[in-house]
Give the backbone structure.
Amino acid sequence: MLSAVAHACVSYSLAGSAAARASSLLAVATRAASHAPRVSAPLAFEAGIPRAALALSQARRHSPPLAFEDGLDELSSDELKGLLSERLASAEKSELLDMLSKPGLSRAESTRVDVFESVSPSVAFISTSVTQPTLRGRTEMPVGAGSGFVWDHEGHIVTNFHVVNGGPARPGRGGSLPRKVMVKLHGQEAAVEASVVGYEAEKDIAVLKVDPSALPSPLRPVELASSSELRVGQSVLAIGAPFGLDWTLTSGIVSALGRDIDGAGGRPIRDCIQTDAAINPGNSGGPLLDSRGRLIGVNTMIYAPGGLGANVGIGFAVPSDTVRRFVNQIITYGPNARPSLGVSVLPDQMRAEFSRNLRRELEGALIADVVAGGPAEASLTATRAGPRGSVVLGDMITAVNGVPVRKNEDLLCLVEEAEQEQPISLTVMRSCDPDRVEEVLITPVRRQSLLDR
């Protein structure tokens, strides 16, 4: 597990003047994802199209091409393929038209430009502030800035929890202070205030909401792709506001998959995407996109050796499948919507100590307590104190829906991935006795319902 990470969101000194700095930026150099292969000029064409060959020759000498009196749209797909020779023989007519209308761009560059122009209106610049009392009254203090993106037409905006919180979750961190979250989309002259619908600190996900009627144009949600289909080596794009420079595009590849990183809430975020696309403070909460402009992850952290708070080529994103699951839970069921069994478990270290004392393996999640009235009250038994200072071990969960549980984190993740209001099958070792293993069906409930008891 990687622990030497830094959140890539907070841009304190730059948050207030992002628009002014962005307007003064003349050019941003980005790494090309690929280069068009160099080809020699076509030497011969089919005898039946000498006019097209002449037109292509004229088009190369003049910019923009004016050789076709009736326009490129009037040519058939076969004629266009003849003009562009074998290099584009497999291209569709729409791609050929695009290439001839943008002669200065390679195919990869044209695709990247199209993705940015299509997705950037869906990317948001987010700033957070708190109101504090002072000797002269009350003043608004910025606590951080980051990025986000449009989730749906109803006004939901997705970002990182630590962008909204102003940093990782800590007891008392601004919790009692009035907090204001402002959202600015591409093309807006001014930011609008957003409400916080809910968040999952342990997955570093937060959901905001703006009023669509207060915006100058309709919202454009980002299209989602499944992160389960990703392959190492795929091209990726990141759009965000590094150091307050809003709507900045960077490119790279999927460097690795299945990374576990420490989340803002203190627990690991599993199966994160590692990328070498430049991610810096201010990029957090912004989208990581595939080459088609579909969401594959939410940029959240960078590897920061020695506390260096800038990109070193190792960044991480929460996978889109995880984002989809938790965002939909928050929107549908509200805050603290994660499924829960209503149990607490003994720390892994204590279970390992019992294992050494008993001189046998105890691999699983050992029940420490069961919430009264919770879904597991009638099915699971907790560990309890025995006579003369002894301990009577309770039940131990060793699998969920057939997937082995070897430590507490395995159980938490498997239960969180369960569908709302659907029963799950638990493999239970009664009183940690290997000769008493049973299958138990339990329907998890929303964590908030347990907190309300």
The CA atoms of residues 350 and 366 lie 9 Å apart. The chain has a mean pLDDT of 79. The first strand starts at residue 5 and ends at 7.
